[in-house]
Model the fold of this input.
Amino acid sequence: MRTRGKLALGGALLVLAVLLVLVLVPVLFRDRIEARLKTEIASSVNARVDWRSASVGLLRDFPSASVSLNDLSVVGVQPFAGDTLAFVKDARLVLELGSVVGFLRHGDPIVVREVVLQQPRVGLRVLTDGRANWDIARPSPTQGTTSKRAVGVTLRNLQLSSGTITLDDRHANLALALHGVNEKLSGDFASEKFLLSTRTRVDSAFVRFAGIPWLSRVAIRLDADVDADLRNNRFTFRRDTLKLNELLLAFEGSATLGKPDTKLDLAFAAPGTAFRDILSLVPAVYAQDFARLRTAGRMSVSGRVRGTYGPHAFPALAIRARVDSGAFKDPSLPLPARGIFMELAVDNPGGHMDSTVVDLKRFHAELGGRPVDARLVVRTPMSDPDVDLRLRGALDLADLARTVKLPDIQGLAGLLNADLAMRARLSDVNASRYDRVTASGAAYVSHLALRSATLPHAVAVDTAALRFTPRAAQLTVLAARVGDSDLRASGSLDNLLGFLMHDEELRGTGSVASSRFDLAEWVSKDKSTEVIPVPPRVDFTLDATASHVTYGALALDDVRGRLRVKDQRVTLDSLRMNTLRGRVVANGAYDTRDLARPTFDLALQLDSVDIPASFAALATVQKLAPVARWTRGNVTGTMAMKGLLAKDMSPVLGALSGRGDLRTSGLVVQNSSALEKVSAALASGPLRSPALGAVRLAFDVANGRVNVKPFDLTAGGLKVPLGGANGIGRVAEVKQQADSAAVEARRRATAEAERIVAEADSQAASIRAQARALADSTRRQAGMRADSVVARATNPVARVAAQAAADRMRRETDQQAERLVREADARADNLVTQARQRAGTVAPLPSRKGGQ
Done:
């Protein structure tokens, strides 16, 4: 017993010593390993690589070691200085323990076995000259050197969860965005030839190539088992699958990696022939309960890519897609879409991406018995888009709403007819070589009515006609109503093609008239701002007339003048109007380039403007001249004001600056409590409602005060010299007042962003809690079943077998429960990440600890 006790004690001490070593070694050598990692990374890549914290462990992946990095970032240098190539919330590298010991003793290379990345965000960019921001590897040491390779990769497993990948390739005119990326890649990279397995899932993908959107909000699933030949850098695919929403593609072939070019020989085709598979790529259809959609028709998709791809090379490609007799119907809507035919070909003979030709040979569809036909060819998409378009059809918009669910649309009606043809090169349009442009046809809208939750008022277009000529798109007539406002317009758009295809400036001229126009109906209802925004990329000159215009209490009659819309500014040129019982001519500008801090610059010529009406309608007059409340008469002269506008588009008084020169023929002050007290004190009746003589005064506004230059006032037979200053905001508060519009707008935006994230956090917490409750319940039930199995065993042999079965049941249940929790955590993390991305478009939020 004593010997056995000593052995047991010795074994316990040995185990304790091993555990102590496993705990202490990472702590003792963590700083050394972290410093060496940074040194070796700096010598291997031409980028700034850093992390917030690092830890080293031997227990979790024993007998391997692991290194965990939090908030890992890779930031580029010239010409991508400041660009974040990658950010990873949590990165874990599993290292071969023997290589770590060799590294610590002799500086041998560290061997990486596994990489796990949580919530990576990768931003890829390629400049027009072909330089890529991911090309950060430093040149390998020249042959003959004796330096050792610091990091060896014999990767067995790569896991990536809740990732985001974007690509902006200006050289290839390619844009890509992948959200909710999850990847599991495994293989024995220590071998020269092995089977590489990849399972890729993407929640939402967007792809635009050559100015054409090919994928939008598409879920991707890639399952591939690839024969990898690392000696020759060749990867061979054998009937692997790629699923885009419901469209399944099988592909095979090979890719041989080289520097700088890659050789490709790939072919793909859709095994299925159901029309609903390709229909799932239409976002508006797929997003609306696609599983319940009834469909008919056949389709086929196939393609081939063969040749070399690189900075100065492009492979030959041929892609074909076809739809025959397609139809679909939402069971909850009354009308089907039928007679859908499509034939699409994308070809490139190889050599350069600009040789790509996109040819939509035929498109035909029928909604409510009305046909739509289209034909489109795009050539030289990179250098000079050459577009050949033919469109003819009719559409009852009410039929569209009865065929496809339209979110937020509460009412839609109207007829749309189009018959147009166009053949043009973008360079000819930009250079005004209209003799080389072919454009003809027209589009008509009649009796359009639209009500939407996103619009503050209903929109109605009685009639509209757009005619196309080589020089311009001409709006020959437009008669419309927005809420209680009516519009009649005509004009010309001179760069519609460049505006639509290359985000160029839309230029044009026109005239607009209205019998009644309410400016308040155009104020944005967005919670973060109520400022009326001026659209970007528009250069438009309008000759405007209106019989009656209102904005709150302000009423304008017989309005006429010229407005110029350019660079998110509206410029007024001699805008004449009858208002405030007099006449006004306005010149100036309204600027929304910074929507949180809109500005105005206004010069007014006043002719017999009524003072009481001005006080009643304009808050600015109430603040600048409070005595106007009791003054009867009118004023003539000039005023100029500029400054900031608050969120309700009223001037920020503390930020006003301006000047004025005003004169009156005679004024009467009535019902002023101050003058009544003076009259009573002096026993002078005329001072109760004094008649004032002609007044001429000059003033300026600055630093929150109105400064009136000295002038003489005649009242009740007395000549009184006056002058001085009136504060419209304490000078110390001017800056605060000037910033109030921006502060309020940002406060509202931040509150909305925080609401989005808080709601996502709550949902994520609920997902995690439910998953853990289900996991616990599953474990309890499995434990009860396991105990029951053991309890039913009637002899020692059966009991041993039952115990083994019960243990296996518990292990399998634990694995299932852990999988439930992991999947729930991944869903919850992805939900929060997407919410923060949405919130970031509303207002910037502070980074959370740990990169969340």
Residues 740-792 form the longest helix (53 residues).
